[in-house]
Amino acid sequence: METHRLILPPDLNQYGFLFGGRLLAWVDEASWIAASLDFPGCKFVTVGMDRVEFRHSVREGTILVIRCEQTAVGRTSVTYAVRVFDRGNSVEPIFSTRVSFVNVDADGRKKPL
Question: For residue 89, what pLDDT is reported?
């Protein structure tokens, strides 16, 4: 799955760069959407991201490309590789991680996919 985000003034810190937490929220949301589309009817919660390292700063007006690819499926969980690119330079990702989700029931207990 692929989605895009336009960097706007509310996304920036006091130095004019994208807040890291804002990018993490978008990565979490995009990968959750990918999981929900791949496994309709599941109720996913995020259990982890394997790495948080920002390779490049991002300024206002940049269009980001967020790509999510399923990499592992367990009995109750699924993991996605997520890469984020500056649309103007889609060769080297500015951020990458793996996001894992677990399917839960109404009481928050693990449930098979």
Answer: 77
Overall domain count for the chain: 1
Residue 10 included in any domain? yes
Give the tokens for residue 55. Answer: 């390779």
Task: Examine residue 112 and state whether it is found in any structural domain, yes or no.
Answer: no
Name the pTM for this structure.
0.94
* Residue 49 main-chain phi, psi, to 5 deg: -120, 135
For 60, the domain range is: 2-103
95: domain CATH number is 3.10.129.10
Q: What is the DSSP letter of 101?
A: E
For residues 80-87, give the mean pLDDT: 96
Closest CA to 72 of 27, 13, 113: 113
Per the CB < 8 A criterion, the answer to whether 59 and 87 are in contact is no
Q: Which residue has the tokens 């793996």?
A: 98
Of 62, 78, 77, 90, the closest CA to residue 2 belongs to 90
